[in-house]
Structures are given as C-alpha cells and as structure tokens.
Amino acid sequence: MKWTFDNEDFFCEETIFDDENDLLHKILNLENDPELYKKCIDKQNEIVRKYMNIEILNEYILKKIETKIETK
Hints:
Blueprint: H1 20-32, H2 34-51, H3 54-70
C-alpha cells in the first residue's frame, strides 16, 4: 500500500530501514536514546491521527476500487 502523505509528513528517518541489519541497528538506537524514541513515537502518532482514520482509509479504498473498475 502506498500512502500519499502531504509533503511535510513522513515517518521519521530513524524508523525507516532497508534490511534486517538496518532494522536491528535502528531498534537498538531507539532503545538506547529516550529522546530519539519520543521524537519518533510522537511523529508516528501524528501521522496515525492525521491519515489513519476511518474516513481517510475509506476514501483511499474507494478510490482504489474506482480506479480498478475504470481500467477494466
């Protein structure tokens, strides 16, 4: 699923990973740095509140269905 966030909205760089090694490294960084963890969790919560609510998800799914129907 591809999310269409506004330009200024995106998950924290410190939580985006490329592979399992990168994931482990980032998890350890978050576990060892409470300020970094707080910054990232606050940003994640902001995105969830803004984009992942029933209205937005419903609109997204309906647009995907309509697009699929139109291309048939």
